[in-house]
Amino acid sequence: RASSRGTKMHTICEKYLLGEDYKAKQMPDSLARFKTIQPIIDQNIDNIYCIEDALYSTKLGLAGSTDCIAEFNGVLSVIDFKTSIRLKKKENIGNYFMQCAAYAQMFTEMTSIPIEQVIVLIGVDTANFCQTLKIEGEELNNYKNKLQFYIDAYYAKVA
Questions:
Q1: How far apart, in whole angstroms, are the C-alpha atoms of residue 128 and residue 69?
Q2: pTM over 0.90
Q3: Which of 10, 17, 139, 153 has its CA 20 to 30 A from that of 36?
C-alpha cells in the first residue's frame, strides 16, 4: 500500500514539474496529498536539472533514478518526494538521506556539479502540510560516508 501511494505521488509530482496534466487518472486522496506538497514546489523549486533521470556512480558501484535535482531556495539539491501516514522524525529517516546522498554522489560524478543539500518532502496523511526535512554540509557528507561504509561492508561479506 505504501509503495502504491509513493508511486502515485511520484507520478503526480513528476507530471506537475514537467507541466503535464497531473490530475488525469488520479484518485482524490492522491491529489489531496499532493496539494500539501504543491505550495512547497511552487515557492521553492526552480531551475530543474533532472526529473526521474537515471544516474550512476562508478565509485559507489550503484545506479538509480532520482526524483528531482533542482535548486531549492536557490541551492542545488537532490529533492525526494515521499508519503507517510504520520509525521517523521529526522533521526528515523536515515535511509532516505543515504539514498539521496547516493544520488548527490552520482550526479556530481556524472556532471562535475556539486550538490549542496538534500530535501525530503513528505506528504503526510494525518497533517495538512508538507513535512520538509533538509541535510547539508557536514551532515550530508556524514550520510555519504555512512553509505560508503555499508557498501564496503556488503562487498566484504560477499567476497
A1: 25
A2: yes
A3: 139
